[in-house]
Amino acid sequence: MKNIVVLVSGGGTNLQALIDAQESGLIQGGKITCVISSKPGVYALERAKKHQIPARVIPRKEYADSVAYSKAILCALQEEKADLVVYAGFMTILDELVVKAYPYQMMNVHPALIPSFCGKGYYGLRVHEEALKKGVKLTGATVHFVTEVCDGGPIILQKAVEVQSDDTPEILQKRVMEQAEWKILPKAVSLFCEDRLEVKNDIVYIK
Ligand code: GAR
């Protein structure tokens, strides 16, 4: 059984999608053993508590820089014996020292079709604001492995979502979550836990 550690910073709807998938038996071969939040008091922590999942808060604000923070996260991941680390709305970029310790064992859900609207500064609602500004007719979500390049790691799954002419960033965000993120994140986690993901030359193959 693989230990899944989920990193969060906010509302935790993607964490909820993972919990729901786990409880309906959709994630074979893995279990969410810990939730780590970069912020105290966020609703994601309530979700973990409701489902008796151990949670830790490691506040980003208490660390001087990214390296110091990343060392604290790495230490926690090692203590939790993580086999898979999932960024589920985790809004902090970690230093490569963490990524190097977990090669192709960390995944992130991003609310756009990478390589569009991604990279440093593209997170949360901002991604949907930019998609609407550009007038794209299709957007979506991507689950990818985390590497030292922000949002640049090998793509595991993607799902497209149509943009409507009267969308606001909030409405589009909700549709992307419902139709794409909450579906592909549990699926990607499940594939990983069943050892069905293989990376060759930066391309993910599903076995
Ligand atoms: C989600 O839309 C997630 O894709 C996005 O933040 C939201 C978090 O929601 N993540 C990023 O933008 C990371 N670059 P949640 O806390 O309800 O899961």
Structural overview:
The protein has 207 residues and is an alpha/beta fold. The chain has one domain: 3-Layer(aba) Sandwich (Rossmann fold). Helices cover 36% and strands 25% of the residues. It is built from 6 helices and 9 strands, in the order βαβαβαβαβαββαββ. The strands form 2 sheets. A 7-stranded mixed beta sheet has the order 3-2-1-4-5-6-7, with helices on one face. The chain has a two-stranded antiparallel ribbon with strand order 8-9. Helix 1 packs across helix 6 (169-193) and helix 5 (125-134) crosses helix 6 (169-193). The radius of gyration is 16 Å and the shape is globular. 38% of the residues are buried. The mean pLDDT is 98. Residues 10-14, 44, 88-89, 109-111, 123-124, 127, 177, 181 line the site of glycinamide ribonucleotide.
Features:
Rossmann fold; 25% strand; alpha/beta; 6 helices; 36% helix; 207 residues; 7-stranded mixed β-sheet; two-stranded antiparallel ribbon; binds glycinamide ribonucleotide
Spell out the blueprint of helices and strands:
Layout: E1 2-8, H1 13-23, E2 30-37, H2 43-50, E3 55-57, H3 66-79, E4 84-87, H4 96-101, E5 106-110, H5 125-134, E6 138-145, E7 155-162, H6 169-193, E8 197-200, E9 203-206
Parallel strand pairs: 1-2, 1-4, 2-3, 4-5
Antiparallel strand pairs: 5-6, 6-7, 8-9
CATH homology group = Formyl transferase, N-terminal domain
CATH architecture: 3-Layer(aba) Sandwich
Number of continuous helical runs: 6
- The neighbouring-strand order within the major sheet is 3-2-1-4-5-6-7
What's the CATH topology label?
A: Rossmann fold
Q: Overall pLDDT, averaged?
A: 98
Question: How far apart are the termini?
Answer: 19 Å
Number of strands: 9
Bound molecules: glycinamide ribonucleotide
Structural class comes to: alpha/beta
Give the CATH class.
Alpha Beta
Radius of gyration: 16 Å
Number of domains: 1
Order of helices and strands: EHEHEHEHEHEEHEE
Strand content: 15-25%
Unreliable parts: none
- Using the alpha-carbon principal axes, give the shape: globular
**Largest sheet entry:** 7 strands, mixed
Helix fraction bin: 25-40%
